[in-house]
Amino acid sequence: MNLPELAAHIAAEFQKHYGRAPRWIAAAPGRVNLIGEHTDYNDGFVLPLAIERYAIMAADNSVAAGKISIYDAAFKENATIDISAPVTKGEPKWSNYLRGVLAGFQQRGEIIPALDVAFLSTVPLGGGLSSSAALEVCTVTLMEAATGKKIDPIEKALLAQKAEHDFAGVPCGIMDQFISALGREGHLLLLDCRTRQTELVPMSDPSVALLVINTNVKHELSGGEYAERRAQCAEAASHLGVKSLRDATADQLENAKTKMSEVVYRRARHVVGEIERTVHAAEGVRHANWPGVGNLMYASHASLRDDYEVSCAELDAVVEITEDIGYRGGVYGCRMTGGGFGGCCVALVKTDCVDAITKKIAADYKIKTGIEAAIFSSRPAAGAMIIKG
Ligand code: ADP
Ligand code: MG
User: What pLDDT is stored for residue 219 in this prediction?
Assistant: First the structure.
């Protein structure tokens, strides 16, 4: 479903459930990171795009004072949030993404109106495409419509991030909420995670497309591994005498190699190289140098696999398949995207070859792993928006 179809669909779902038409409709996209992995908590750069998959909400004022009723139109489930007192965590689990945002509004001293809400999402859940940020940013955007108070997109992203920290218990960086709030159609977002400066990088060449390949696996070792990587990065930075790895060059790292363990050195080599690759990739996108961008993506994957050790057999299988298809078959580059240990790959491909490449990856991935991949293509999509109201 494209966005206008999705808006019509959620309006119809609202009508069916509440017996009247909605007054407001708001949407916010999921995202995929083209390059810049495990750089965010090292004060580096990331280069994500919003994808044409959205969380969408329809709403109207409610006569039931002091509460917000929410209908999940995909799972046919209801939730009620008490807004007459400070909003707390509660059931069902997904309601916490909305609760966190509402609590943030209360902390800002805003009066939250009683609402009836219907929502659904076309962002795959738990696949590393940030269905959680889409839900949070969509909630902020809906509240923007319902209260009539414009919220600066950066403030919107930070409010959503706080909801993820405090109510979902995920100590995420700023990438997911920033791209969901600030994305623009036909553009990537180069985000400096240190200064929070953003730059929209146009990617309007119709001859290239992005494929998202979901491995449909999630290996549950990511929690401890994530903390360990962060600690190793901090250790490397302290050996180098810098605040964070953002401040280190490849030469500095080589010179200090003997000061640290081999593992810590390799972790740092990934981060320092990846920050550089991300800046170069943004430059490549600006100049439509697709083979150059593709090579940086392959290099990013190799570094995440060998130096940072956050890939897995399924992600590697997808990248190997795309390497076999190669430039002649229309693939410029491919890499794992997201934290790792499963989730998705992103590939940069020739638009003309999308169908053939999709079929080939699906077939070969099934043979190699026995698993069905989920594959879709997306142009860089628009960020959060009020569709009605
Ligand atoms: P990701 O953000 O990469 O999709 P997360 O683990 O951060 O993965 O968030 C996934 C969780 O978000 C799901 O397990 C679910 O609880 C919640 N969620 C997001 N969107 C929806 C939705 N439309 N309906 C129900 N739950 C959702
Ligand atoms: Mg998430």
Answer: 85
Per-domain residue ranges for the chain? 3-33+51-186+381-388
Phi/psi at 55 (5° precision) = -90, 135
Q: What is the pTM of this model?
A: 0.95
What is the best residue among 132, 215, 218, 341 to mutate for testing ligand 1's pocket, by most ligand atoms within 8 Å of CB? 132
Q: CATH code for 3-33+51-186+381-388?
A: 3.30.230.10
Note if 176 is an active site residue: yes
The set of protein residues with a Cβ atom below 6 angstroms from ligand 1 is: 72, 74, 93-94, 121, 125-132, 135
The residue nearest atom 3 of ligand 1, judged by CA position, is 128
Spot the catalytic one: 43, 72, 176, 316: 176
Examine the pLDDT at 171 and tell me if it is beyond 90: no
Sheet of 45-46, strands arranged across: 45-46, 187-192, 198-202
CA distance 222 to 351: 34
